[in-house]
Write a structure and sequence with these properties.
2 domains; 0% strand; Arc Repressor Mutant, subunit A; Tetracycline Repressor, domain 2; disordered N terminus; elongated; mainly alpha
Length: 230
């Protein structure tokens, strides 16, 4: 795989490389949604790419190389969404609520549903493809670190009971969210409503455990749709 540099190191060249890579990733996403991983080919991606097919091979060596790049691209996009939500949320508890609302939204528009189905398709391939498993491991580590940091910040500030282990709680939260997202797209029953309600209640129990006398003050409506920024 090329390192994406072919001479020239000024900011304009770097921005151009970034723009091209974004176009490649967007083309990969469209082709993946249309054909699925099993039927996907570089030719399908090239058909969605508005520039020369040779640029695909300049940046990426193969279909799986493109998919690995796409997973990194998708992870960065999701982390940017979390960054925006965390800036609006403020407190560690609100950051946890926001994470649940983004990862397991009460309602999905068509575009987000399609994106989640594409990611689930690729996660299934990670069973046999070590390259994809490495990427999903990296993604999970980033997400788990976000949750762990929020919980640890809550413990440090006294909002969350210090008996709660941030690493264990973050692992449980992420695993539950990931399982619910998978079931949302692979089973014909409502898993989202009860899991969202339980997870939001679970987050509130962090605060109740830290300050049992203040439990009434921390009660919240489990429907958090209005908590996220537009």
């Amino acid at each position: 795989m090329s390192d994406g540099t072919n001479g020239g190191s000024d900011a304009g060249d770097e921005n151009g490389e970034s723009d091209v890579n974004t176009l490649i990733m967007e083309a990969t996403y469209r082709a993946l949604c249309e054909h699925g991983y099993a039927e996907l080919s570089v030719s399908h991606i090239a058909a969605e790419f508005e520039k020369s097919k040779s640029l695909l091979y300049y940046h990426y060596d193969s279909k799986d190389d493109l998919i690995a790049g796409f997973l990194r691209f998708a992870c960065d996009h999701f982390l940017a969404m979390l960054d925006a939500a965390e800036r609006e949320a403020g407190s560690p508890l609100d950051r946890l609520h926001a994470f649940v609302d983004i990862y397991l939204a009460a309602e999905l528009d068509g575009e987000m549903a399609e994106a989640q189905r594409a990611i689930i398709d690729l996660r299934g391939q990670a069973v046999a493809e070590s390259r994809f498993r490495e990427e999903f491991t990296r993604i999970d580590e980033h997400l788990r670190d976000r949750l762990e940091t929020a919980i640890a910040d809550g413990v440090e500030s006294g909002l969350i009971d210090d008996a709660i282990d941030p690493e264990e709680a973050a692992t449980w939260l992420l695993s539950t969210l990931t399982g619910a997202m998978l079931q949302r797209h692979t089973a014909d029953y409502d898993v989202v409503t009860p899991v969202r309600a339980m997870l939001h209640s679970y987050v509130e129990e962090f605060a109740r455990a830290a300050d049992p006398a203040g439990a009434d003050e921390t009660d919240r409506d489990v429907d958090r749709d209005d908590a996220l920024p537009e």
